[in-house]
Amino acid sequence: MTRPRNHPQRIELNDEVHSRPPEPLVTPLRMSYLALLCDPGQRELAIRAIRELAEQFGVKPPEPGAGHYSADFGPFRLRFEGHTEFIRCTFIVSGADKESFDRPAIAAVPGEWIASLPGQVMVAAHTALLPAEEEEGIDVRAMAAQFFDGNVLVGSRIAGYGGTALTDFRIHADGYSRLLILNHAMNPFQAGRMMQHLLEIDTYRIMALLALPVARDLAPFLGERERELAAVTTALISAGEPDEPVLLERLTRLQAEIESRHSASLYRFSAAGAYYELVQGRIAELREDRSQGMQTFREFTERRLAPAMNTCRSVAGRQESLSQRVAQATQLLSTRVDVSRERQNQSLLASMNRRASLQLRLQSTVEGLSIAAVTYYIVGLVGHAAEGLHAAGVAVVPDIAMAVSIPVVAIAVALALHRVRRGVIDR
Question: pLDDT digit string (tens) for 393-415?
């Protein structure tokens, strides 16, 4: 059938929903999981390391710049995922028993290769997927003693009673946390989804908490700057014109400091909010039911993560509010400075007008004197001319000729100067 031309990104956008599918997990098995904080350069190094490992085991390597990769290496299965801030490597080994955490899946991977992975570990976990031996109930104390060094457990029935998930949310002596899933009735795809959700809850929880140290470090800074703003606004009430430039400089410096810290922390706080929403979404997808009086994953996470996120939101809101208040104070003071400048400009213009008026009067006086001087000079020339004519026998009386020429010359000179001045003004 014919159809209009595809959008250039139609296929890519459609296939996005199928990216990073959960790995189907057949009970029993062991998994080891690493989430490494990486920048873009380190992510490329991680892909290069996986390519080298694939070539070592004779497996098809990932494509350059791949965001997802999954392959069977024989002794283990490797799953790689690249994200904006971190990468995830999952190692899967078939078969599991009560000693699973003593023989983790990552032990099948070359140790020197694991040590060469770039980035910093944010989450490291050993997991085990075991068949449930008891359908009616689980001995929580026995499970805690056998798998979790006797620690208090967090857990629940998940996937509509299809399985039970247990963890203590602690990092054990080997540097890894532990997660145990008992499979009651989950198929491989359900087990894969539940395992992925549980690991993502732990990963996104830690990534969200990266904003908490930023908030704690920012709180004293905001307190100091709030006091500085209060001092400036108090001084602004009684400040005179000489004080305004100094106060404006203080406000400008204060605003620059706040905006610098705001820019540095904005991404971290925004990312924390996004990660927190992902945690809540993954918990909802577990379809939890309370089991044996243990705290559920939602209760444990909300009790500890929600206050931290509230702190981050509070500090972020406080920072935004402070930035707006400083901007308003700066605008107010700038308005006062502008009014003062306009007042000074008006005084300067009035002074310039007075000077121009005086200059005009002086110019008129000088112009009158100039007319008199030029008239006197020209009339003198007329007198000399009349004397010459009289000496030549012409009937001209020099004094009368000079007297008659005075008004004529004066009018002519005045008109000439007026035309010159008008010509200059018109230009």
Answer: 777 777 787 788 888 877 887 78
Task: State the Cα–Cα distance between residues 139 and 146, nearest whole angstrom.
Answer: 11
Burial category of 238 from C-beta neighbours within 10 Å (exposed 0-12, middle 13-18, buried 19 and up): exposed
Task: Report the distance separating Cα 78 and Cα 168, nearest Å.
Answer: 25
Strand ranges across the sheet with 163-167: 68-72, 77-82, 86-94, 29-37, 120-131, 177-183, 163-167, 154-158
Q: Among residues 147, 96, 118, 128, which one has the least CA distance to residue 36?
A: 118
Q: How far is CA 238 from the centre of its chain?
A: 37
Longest Cα separation, the chain: 157
CB 49 within 8 A of CB 113: yes
Angle between helices 211-238 and 297-391 (to 10 degrees): 40
Q: What is the DSSP string of 7-35?
A: PTTHHHHHHGGGSSPPPP-PSSEEEEEEE
Bridge partners, 123 (sequence order): 35
Give me the phi and psi of 232, to 5 degrees please.
-65, -45
* Summary count for the chain: helices (H), strands (E): 9, 8
Question: Quick one: tokens of 346?
Answer: 């008006």
Q: What is the pLDDT of residues 282-305, one digit of tens each?
A: 999 999 998 877 899 999 998 889
What residue has token string 């190692």?
Answer: 91
pTM for the full predicted model: 0.77
- What is the dihedral angle through the alpha carbons of 391, 393, 395, 397, rounded to the nearest 10 degrees? 10
Q: Are 189 and 210 in contact (CB under 8 A)?
A: no
Question: Can you tell me the distance from the alpha carbon of 423 to that of 300, in angstroms, rounded to the nearest whole number?
Answer: 92
Nearest to 31 by CA among 80, 78, 67: 78
CA distances from 232 to 244, 250, 259, 319, 341 (A): 10, 8, 18, 18, 21
Strand 177-183, strand 120-131: pairing: parallel
pLDDT average, residue stretch 9-27: 79
User: Is the CB of residue 63 less than 8 Å from the CB of residue 96?
Assistant: no
Structure tokens at 330: 């700066």
Distance CA 85, CA 204 (A): 11
